[in-house]
Amino acid sequence: MAGLVIKPRSRIFHGHDWVYASEIKKSFGNPQPGEVISLKDFKDKPLGSAIYNPRSQIVARRFSRRKQELDREFFLRRLKLAFSLRERLPLDVSLCRLAWSESDGLPGLIIDRYGPHLVMQTLTLAMDQRIELIIEALRELLSPDSIVIRNDSPMRKAEGLEPASFVAHGENPDPVSLEAGGLRFEANLLGGQKTGLYLDQLDSYERVASLAEGKRVLDCFSNQGGFGLACARAGAASVTCVDISSEAVSAVRNNARLNSLEVDAVEANAFDYLKSCEETFDLIILDPPSFTRSKKALGDAMRGYKEIHLRALKLLNHDGYLATFSCSHHVNRELFLSNLRDAAVDTRRTLRLVESYCQRADHPILPTIPETEYLKGFCFQLLPGR
Ligand code: SAH
């Protein structure tokens, strides 16, 4: 088997599974893009099997510490394991992320389940080349009504892959009716803005909503309204959802109707909305998209967070709550917290931490692969009269 010899002190010696170009000492046997290769240390000791793509910054991603092919048996075994691990979690496995890339030993493969429908993403060349094999394994294990391929993630570009979305098995399932946390949602798995619901936030909806009774709520970057609708259901006095996308705003209105809830959905840039808003609120939720996908743009991202934090704090009634989230891996917990601290100082507010949030357990974090941790959130209460 062709492969790579890895330089000493590379991240793979610290439990990571990735190999960057700068960590390669030499290659042997002429490895080909998309192939399974073997990794060795500088003393010729095997480190395991990896998928290879010299076009990507991450040249190799290890998926096994042994010699292993990416064949049918492998996919059946790994997928079965990923599913059975989810079944032990306290969550509804009919609406969950069934397999999540590195965290499930399937680098670049993501599978979400929406009842009888599956949505699959292949974000690495090797997984993309094996779509048929994976579909076969999924059909054998889960007999889904449909499998939708949603390969429009910008991450594919880094692997030299074109965007492509299509139905790979069954009929186009759109629109799909779902139930999450006692709320009904309608989502478009093939045609929607994203692959369906934000599964990583499903737990946070209810936890944030537990603070909402009798409150005036503002849900910024609301997408299809997960937070806002949960707050309305929990007895909020009023709920305003703000999103820049008209598709998201129609989805909020549609979902509100489905649940017989009253929600005001506004199509606007949340930065502008927060700036010119003349009302005040008792609970403000900020769940923006990732402001940065790279370390380079971190400064801009932090300025973005600072601006929405400052403006939100100014719109909060005394003893109001601010629930704020960041889904960028580069913005770690400490950095995010320090951003809030700065905003509190600048607005002369005293904040009390009420709760912390993270990605739901069907998006498991591997401590040796820090990139698997990305979603973090805090809820603060403004201390009155201080
Ligand atoms: N809270 C949502 C997920 C938010 S995803 C949920 O749990 O479902 C981020 C959302 O922010 C997307 O819907 C996107 O359309 C919206 N968005 C991006 N930039 C925006 C901006 N400047 N102002 C308002 N919304 C924005």
Brief summary of the model shown:
The protein has 386 residues and is of the alpha/beta class.
Helix and strand element order:
EEEEEEHEEEHHEEEEHEHEHEHEHEHEE
Helical content, roughly? 25-40%
Span between N and C termini?
Answer: 67 Å
Number of helices: 9
Estimated share of beta-strand residues: 25-35%
Shape, per Cα inertia axes:
globular
Number of strands: 20
Q: Show unreliable segments.
A: none
The ligands found in this model are: S-adenosyl-L-homocysteine
Chain-averaged pLDDT = 96
Structural class determined from secondary elements:
alpha/beta
Strand order of the largest sheet: 16-15-14-17-18-20-19
Sheet with the most strands, sense and barrel status = 7 strands, mixed
Whole-angstrom Rg: 22 Å
Descriptive key words:
alpha/beta; 386 residues; 7-stranded mixed beta sheet; single chain; 20 strands; binds S-adenosyl-L-homocysteine; 9 helices
